[in-house]
Design brief:
Elements lengths: L3 H65 L14 H9 L2 E8 L2 E9 L4 E2 L7 H14 L7 H12 L44 H5 L1 E5 L2 E6 L6 E2 L6 E2 L5 H4 L7 H12 L1 E2 L5 E2 L6 H7 L11 E2 L4 E10 L2 E12 L4 E10 L1
Parallel strand pairs: 3-6, 7-10
Antiparallel strand pairs: 1-2, 2-11, 4-5, 8-9, 11-12, 12-13
Helix pairs in contact: 1-2
């Protein structure tokens, strides 16, 4: 027979081993939880820093707008880190600006909003609106078969009366029959996205992609959302507009749009430095490109006060983006936010 003392010591050893095992599991669990919490806290710390960096980008944009109003091409200051950026903005726009700041990076785009066509200011008469809309739809690759419904529905949505056009739609004959029902605006659009409420318009027409129509195989289109805005006087900033936007102007095709961009981007000087030559005003455009339709000067401008600002703050693997439409008040050197959006 085993001695009672040995049996007791063996039982105690088993109990100790069980306790040590349980303690090991608890310690491992606590360590894992602490590790997870540390990673979560670290992520939110980086996210907060990225958010503040993205917001600080707006202050950088305001500073560059104010500086661009005062700077001249001949100014030189090796210690002014923002001088060349202010010159760039004065000439038209800033795209792809990237600067290290504190523990992260700011990426900034400052583009005049009138680099797009104002959908609410396409002309003073229905005929002019139709002409401009047709050019916009053509640049977007929208099939001509869809133009009558899109254009007349747009006209019905924005005019003040309740009488539908042949291919259009008004509240009583169309919008009240939908589920849920709603009323025609009978006024200017607040945003470009409001086009999606209008009969015939859809997301593909705005954003591009495969456009599917009844009885017709889907076709790929570029869309028109990047051509439009609801801000500005209606004139296009010829120093900032893309080739696609330029081609929505009367008499401007691929060749003319290319000539405008080549002329404003300048040339390479003998010392290898690029000399940009933005247009000073609408008449300067006509003077430098005399073969162009002189009426084009009524459609363009060279200075803007409303900007589309995209500011991205990055800290390690975390980024935050602030996007806004803002009007710059040169007298007070302040930005007045008109639209605002934040996203990861």
């Amino acid at each position: 027979m085993r001695h009672p003392a040995k049996r007791a010591s063996g039982s105690a050893l088993i109990v100790v081993l069980w306790v040590m095992g349980l303690l090991s599991v608890l310690i491992a669990s606590f360590a894992f939880d602490a590790h997870v919490e540390a990673r979560i806290i670290g992520y939110y710390r980086r996210r907060t820093k990225a958010e503040y960096l993205s917001r600080s980008g707006l202050e950088v944009a305001r500073m560059l707008m104010a500086k661009s109003r005062k700077v001249s091409e001949d100014d030189e200051d090796a210690e002014d880190l923002w001088l060349e950026d202010a010159k760039r903005l004065k000439k038209g726009k800033i795209s792809g600006l990237k600067r290290e700041l504190s523990e992260g990076i700011i990426k900034l785009d400052i583009i005049p909003e009138p680099a797009r066509r104002n959908i609410n200011s396409l002309g003073g008469t229905p005929d002019l609106i139709v002409e401009n809309l047709e050019r916009i739809l053509e640049v977007g690759g929208i099939p001509e078969d869809l133009w009558p419904e899109l254009i007349e529905s747009f006209l019905d949505w924005t005019d003040k009366d309740g009488v539908p056009r042949f291919d259009g739609a008004e509240t009583e004959d169309y919008y009240e029959t939908l589920e849920p029902p709603y009323q025609a605006k009978n006024g200017p659009l607040d945003t470009v996205g409001e086009l999606l409420l209008i009969k015939g318009w859809n997301r593909t027409i705005l954003d591009g992609g495969e456009l599917k129509m009844d009885g017709i195989e889907g076709i790929m289109i570029s869309g028109i959302g990047d051509l439009l805005t609801t801000y500005g006087s209606g004139k296009v900033n010829v120093n900032a507009a893309s080739p696609r936007v330029l081609k929505t102007l009367p008499g401007v095709d691929d060749l003319v749009a290319g000539a405008i961009i080549e002329e404003r981007e300048g040339f390479i000087a003998d010392d290898g430095k690029k000399e940009e030559t933005p247009f000073k005003n609408a008449q300067d455009l006509i003077n430098r490109l005399p073969d162009m339709n002189a009426a084009l000067k009524d459609y363009v401008e060279t200075d803007s006060s409303v900007y589309r600002i995209t500011s991205v703050g990055e800290v390690s693997d975390v980024s935050r983006e602030v996007w806004c439409i803002a009007e710059f008040d040169a007298g007070k050197s302040e930005l007045r936010i008109k639209r605002w959006r934040e996203e990861d």
